[in-house]
Amino acid sequence: GRYWARDCGLCGLIMLRNAARLFAQRVRSGGGGGFGGLGNEGRRGMSTDSAAAVPKKPRRWARNILGSLAVLTVGGSGYAMWNRMRLAEIEMADDDDTDLVDGVKKKRVVVLGTGWGAVPILKNIDTNKYEVICVSPRNYFLMTPLLPSVAVGTVETRTVCESIRSLSLGKRIKYVEAEATDIDPKNKVIRCNKNTELHGDLDHRRTSAELKLDPGKTSSSRAIQDSTRARPNFELEYDYLVVAIGAENQTFNTPGVTKHAHFLKELPDARRIRAAVSDAFESAVQPGQTEEERKRLLHFVVVGGGPTGVEFAAELNDLVNEDLRHFHHKLVRSDVRISLIEALPTVLGVYDKTVQEYTMKHFKRENIDVLANTFVKEVRAEATVVQKKGEKQLQEIPCALVVWATGIKTRPIINNLMKAIGDTVQTNRRALLTDQYLEVKGAPGMYALGDCATIEVPKMLASVKELFEEGDVIKDNALSLEEFHNLVKSKRDKYPQLEFYIDSIENAFAEGDTNKDGKLSLEEFTKLLERIDKKIKILPATAQVANQEGIYLAKYLNAIEADKDNAKETFKPFRYRHMGSLAYIGSDEAIIDLTGTSLFNIALGGRNAFFLWRSFYFTECFTARTKLLLFADWLRAKIFGRDISRV
Q: Are 243 and 112 in contact (CB under 8 A)?
């Protein structure tokens, strides 16, 4: 029913196209200017003078205009009818508040969060089977990898966010803009507070007295407080809870970071940074500004050499060299400085070594100072205090803007939840511990994914005797190559560390067979499992991981039968498939690391990688609207430059 109008429009377009072709054929054959007109044969009965008259050339431009108008009219009418029926169906779905299916009350699934892990669940879960409620203080999905571009104006703010209500149109999903403050796993209840702070607002403008600055110096943001946000406290029961609230910025308890440094994790962070960069340049050109103060204002410090820090340093360098230099030529040439501070010996520590070296050389060409093996000891309003590895002396770096991108840590609600479940079950203090089906250990019916969770991979060494007895089919107290091969194949789903040996089982067997008798004894098998267990890796806190987990969990929940609480007996555990890593490094160059993937197993950088980087993030946009806006922003920035105004 919902596609009827659209199909009618398409049929109309096809009929119009065929009619235009028939009309063109008649014109070329001398058939005159209409479908019902006479051809040359029909004119034989006319006068000789009339027959000998030279036929007029058809007015092709008029025909093309009329044809185009007809196509637009028919296509537009069909789209309008289809869109009206689509909206009507959405309204019907929104009005349908029933929580019954076949006369039985639906089980309630509460999803906390609207990020990379939560959105795939909302898009793929069966709302005919579950009552789905999404709770989050952020009522939009954020394209976080593009935040560095937003911070310098390459991409506008509305391009990287999509309303969560738009993404869940027609899915019978209820959204509540609130922040969960407590989770009771025993009674299956979450508690939400008033959340009087707007998630998308900028902080209030701090005065010079608050920042301990000279009079006249302030930060770049302000917010108005009114009474429009009136949210009562409430509790919400659940049958299944999905915790996908991400993590918060890790400061390592460094003094001054929370007060003086900018984070780059949410949309308001990018807006603050964009305003601060504009403030720094406008302050530098003020009459009476000293040279020392001007150099301080135009020194930008980025802490953290991961993908976020590298991409922001690159985007900021592009802004300075491609746009601001036209208006502040002398400043850019002599005073602007960008420093990237990293505690490790190189940037992009989790990437391939080839990519790391390429990025370091590229930053050197672009005059971006990389301070490797350097630790930040304190962040002040007008300086950053650092210490080189192996040195006792502290160094003070005058600067006006510090962007902190050093990692993540668990949110307070997650810490409280782990305590409520019990330290004996939740043994990992960095994130919620889940099994391979993403179910939280010690909390049945609760699932966690993304940055706030980590998957516990069972160690084979803990079950070495059971595995040995199961593999020893002929009961000779030894494993042959065939028995070892069958054991690895049958246990690869339960023990993901075996994936490293699937294609080289013979080599692993030969490595474990130390006495070269063609069999593995229990002692040899135990030592081999010790080496295999060392291949266990914690999944990185990336959007790629959270997205795959969200898609998997939606399928898992859809597979749960009505009379059961899980589908672990028939459903395979989650397996992460690494698709590669990308990062933008400036000047229309990027790096791509495909090592460890099933694609090409290569690492490269340059202009070709830049086009692949843009193509990837273009396709990652969830809707046609954000794709169109992103393409338009890239085109606008290339043709007209970035908008350098502070709004």
A: yes
Distance CA 196, CA 452 (A): 24
In this structure, the number of other CB atoms found within 10 A of the CB of residue 384 comes to: 24
Closest by alpha carbon to 588, among 428, 385, 366, 435? 366
Alpha-carbon separation of residue 52 from 43, 47, 48, 55, 412 (angstroms): 10, 9, 6, 9, 93
Adjacent-strand bridge partners of 454: 433
Amino acid at 174: K
Query: What Rg, from alpha-carbon coordinates, does the chain have?
Result: 32
d(CA 93, CA 89): 6
- Asked if residue 333 lies in contact with residue 312, where contact means CB atoms within 8 angstroms, the answer is no
Residue 409: exposure state from Cβ atoms within 10 A (0-12, 13-18, ≥19): middle
Short-list 446, 394, 461, 450, CA closest to 238: 446
pLDDT tens track for 270-326: 999 999 999 999 999 999 999 999 999 999 999 999 999 999 999 999 999 999 999
Residue in 577, 581, 632 with CA at minimum distance from that of residue 609: 581
Q: Which amino acid is at 379?
A: V
Strand bridging mode 337-341 / 299-303? parallel
Q: What is the pTM of this model?
A: 0.82
101's enclosing H/E stretch is: strand 100-101
